[in-house]
Amino acid sequence: MRKLMMITVGASALLAAACTPAEQGDTTQAETTTAAATAEAPANVLLAEWDGPYGGVPNFQTAQMSDLTAAVERGMEISLAEIDAIVNNPEPATFENTIVAMERGGQELSRIFSYWGIWGSNMSTPEFRALQRELSPRLAAFNSQITQNEALFARVRAVYEGEEMASLRPDQQRVVQLTYSGFARNGATLEGEEAARYAEIQQELAGLHTRFSNNVLNDEEGYVTYLTDEQLSGLPNDYVQASAAAATARDQDGMYAVTNTRSSMDPFLTFSDERELREQVWRNYYSRGDNGDGFDNNDIIMQILSLRHERVNLLGYENYASWRLEDRMAGTPDRAMELMEGVWGAAVARIEEEVADMQAIADAEGAGITIAPWDYRYYAEKVRQARYELDSDEVKQYLQLDNLREGMFYVAGELFGFDFRPLPEGEVSVWHPTVKVWEVTDRASGDHIGLWYLDPFARQGKRSGAWASSFRSHTSYDGPTNVLATNNSNFVEPAPGEPVLVSWDDAETFFHEFGHALHFLSSNVAYPTLNGGVRDYTEFQSQLLERWLLTDPVVENYLVHAETGEPMPAELIERIRAAANFNQGFATGEYLASALMDMVYHTTDPAEIGDPDTFERETLTRLGMPEEIVMRHRSPHFGHIFSGEGYSSGYYGYMWADVLTSDASEAFAEAPGGYYDQELAARMVEHLFAPRNAIDPAEAYRLFRGRDADVSALMRDRGFPVTE
């Protein structure tokens, strides 16, 4: 029932997977085996086994949202029947009749959540949000029925503590350990009133996470800045055309729409000469969920923090972060804070240098301003051009989305031995006409690996950012299954016939999210549970893949000019490499501010927090936050930690993973074959990608590198001083 246990160990976390922000990697996954609890083919399409080619695929064309409530109800019924069958087995508990039986169950709900994830993240509507609000608490209650099933936990514990454990393979032992922990850490040991209260809290949190996410989405859809022809100064032509198309789609012909998403906001703040409009766009974006109206999230934040604190107190933990990090690589909040605070000082010092450089340019221009947050990107671009003669718009001409995709395929072929074949339109079902699908095969054997779906463009109802997920993961315990992986972005769809040109940051993000997809596609694990991950490790593989964007074969063959087709000139490449750490203060500082706030929120008694806006401001002041920047994700729209629990007390994990990334990158830089060294690439796939969560992450990294990661590699990588 491990796919069910993915829900069980945090219904709210899984439900929020459909609406948790960009950087999230692994979300809902589904298997296609028939549930043991029913021999009937369900009439409800959302429950039905997937048919068609490639091991069966979701049928988005026939799936009806009106069937969702009935499907969820039936899925829960089937899953509880499967639990009853396990509990009522008269034979003593064994790995096969208890753990594997749980791994095998819950398939109907998993299939449902593949559709749920698309309706929640890619195609959200008011109708779906209403269903989400209704069903989230009910699913949380269902999960509590399982985690607090004493007889089921007794069987799991019997396997965990039994003699059979020593005879199991290492990966089987890890499945048992993770299953036992999933119960013990989520209320299975509670009794009586404490157990009942735990279940109540889970239901309340599920509803609050959903409300938080939907409030943010409302503000992303509801705040659009419309420009006239006289307000386009400084904006690149491709951005102007895309903004015109976005306005037309909103029945504002002749205008230009700056939507309230990062993909629209960021380039506007970088290039627009209109300072007042920059401030307006900036305030719209960073005020999401914080507008004092019916969609304001501040009170919801306090309710979430209070309930989380109460819940972990029931389990005997001092605070939420201590509970959350117990099974992470960092281990304790203190270790995570030590890493972040060690980098924070260097980031703040670099920000001060960056602001001084920007202020000097503004003064020389006679702008008569003091650099404010809505000026940072604009004047940073001027500094970049002055110092490195590097114009972001010039670079964009070599960053065509289609070519970047082909460059990613090249890297996947060289390192992983994967080939990608585009499927003809209509061969498999997709949820939107702009979604494309590729078959992935093994280059050496020709064997089918899976499918890769790409949903590249922003649209109304699609949450902002970029993310990866999978509809089905590889397992082999009941025969091999193929992978159905997805990448989702929010590039601005161009005018008809125009190429999609993206920024360097967006190109890196594209490679990053593809790294998650390669992690899915590389899996060689036997059991569904092992396709999960440790949060402060799962970003490592995707961050590592970003490094191949600037490798010679990709630059020379795929970064070609949109009009001339000429490869990127060597001197431009050198300017990009020279500027690799440019604006690193801003990038590190805005991220760390969010990561530090996350940890402070979850190590502080909620009674001492009061108002989140005030607490955020006072905490950042205490930390020495430069006034010229803002948190990457301000509290009222920090969906990573408040739309669910996937990243709560875990946003630091990007930096923890970046230590591994920096250290592993040095290994490739030192290898005889560089970033395409075949021996090192094989070790990377074998130890860092293929095992997923079948091995302790620290041990997996040692098998790859021969030692633990060196924290100083991160400082060298970012161009910060290294202190011994």
Task: Kindly report the oligomeric state of this protein.
Answer: single chain
Distance between the termini: 49 Å
Low-confidence stretches: 1-41
Structure class: mainly alpha
Mean pLDDT: 92
What share of residues is helical?
Answer: 40-55%
The largest sheet has its strands arranged as 3-4-5-7-6
Q: How many strand segments?
A: 7
Text of the CATH class of the domain at 2-217: Mainly Alpha
Number of H- or I-type helical stretches: 29
Q: Roughly what fraction of the amino acids lie in strands?
A: 5-15%
Which architecture of the domain at 2-217 does the CATH hierarchy give at level 2? Orthogonal Bundle
Main sheet? 5 strands, mixed
C-alpha Rg (nearest Å): 25 Å
Query: According to CATH, what is the topology of the domain at 2-217?
Result: Neurolysin, domain 3
Looking at the structure, what is the overall shape?
globular
